[in-house]
Amino acid sequence: MSVIDSTIDGRYQILTRIASGGMGDVYRAQDVVLGREVALKTLHPQFAGDDGFVNRFRREARASAILSHRNIVAVHDWGSTDGTYFMVMEFIRGTNLRSLLTEHGRLEPAPVVEVALQVMSALDHAHAHGIVHRDIKPENILIDADGTVKVADFGLARAFADASVSQVEGTVTGTVQYLGPEQIEGRPAGPRTDIYSFGIVMFELLTGRPPFTGETSLAIAYQHVSSRVPPPSTVVGGVPLALDQAVAHATEKDPAERPESARSFRDEIARAGVGLPPALGVTELAAQLPSTGISPGQRVPTVTVPRIRPPRHARTPRSRRIAASAGALALIILVGWAVWAFAIPRYE
Q1: Which of 98, 94, 89, 77 is nearest to 26 (CA)?
Q2: d(Cα 85, Cα 101) in Å, to the nearest integer?
């Protein structure tokens, strides 16, 4: 029996499928009780008996449901019926950043700032409610028809107190092109992890490609730990210094070196956006694409890779400062001992 035209939970009439992913499908549906169009996400049947997938699906619904913000896709309902787990979300008639990148290659600095300001507002709200997204990437940033940017898919979200990234001992799960170094090293993810991931997204929006590529997911993950993100202006011309600096600040290896919050990074981006050359905004750019609802475009897959221990030469600036201070202290003690032992006359 086809899912199309069927009714879920006696309330949501399935109209058409608009997206498909690793965990499930997303459909355009009609809420016959409230008479409104919604997006209905279902978990693939083969995962319904897997507690890990069910818990992740439930976590996405709960994390999204406690957040109410114009820049976050709203979740209206969640449940299961006849073995089908479903989530009912706000229907977004528009596109996403992945589709914009596929169509336009890259964006001018002005629309990048426009997107960044709204994403940071969304993350500031989520972080204020104790939720870290952990999977910020172009596919999960949607553009409504009126140009409103909305963060979606809290499937990997966790409360700060439960922000360990590993689901299997010694591994890390996420979209490797956008993972923070601390995630890859198996350390807890926090608000500054989301800022790092969006710094990677900013680099890609400005240049048309992610900063790190490789033949394997592990090779890409290693670069997040060991290599600095290059300034976007070294890849394409016309990127102002202030945006180079914003990307560099967001993508520091040591979370302590990044902006202290999404709100402070929003302020930094706002300052960087002053005086930028005029360019088409995200509303105009999105209008050039077909409006198909929530559509993942060419999704970058979520993968599981082994944790990586950082090499000694890739220690964070903070750890290098601590090591340098310890070394200096040891040197002072050594010199003091030498002076006492050899330079000061002793009388017996």
Answers
A1: 89
A2: 32
162 catalytic? Reply is no
Q: Average pLDDT of each block of 10 consecutive residues along the chain (348 residues)?
A: 80 90 84 95 82 79 85 90 88 91 95 98 96 92 93 68 45 81 91 97 98 92 95 96 98 97 98 94 86 46 63 51 51 53 52
Pinpoint the alpha helices (H) of the chain.
51-65, 97-104, 109-128, 181-184, 191-207, 217-226, 241-250, 262-272, 282-287, 317-338
CA gap 294, 92 in Å, rounded? 6
Burial 112-124 (b: 16+ CB within 10 A, else e): bbbbbbbbbbbbb
Q: What is the pTM of this model?
A: 0.81
DSSP label of 72: B
User: 124, 135, 153, 194: which one is catalytic?
Assistant: 135
The C-alpha atoms of residue 252 and residue 246 are separated, in whole angstroms, by 10
Structure tokens at 26: 């997303």
Residue 39 one-letter amino acid: A
Question: Which tokens belong to 200?
Answer: 């990677």
**H/E segment holding residue 84:** strand 84-90
End-to-end alpha-carbon separation of the chain, Å? 103
Q: How far is CA 83 from CA 2, 6, 48, 117, 200, in A?
A: 16, 15, 7, 40, 38
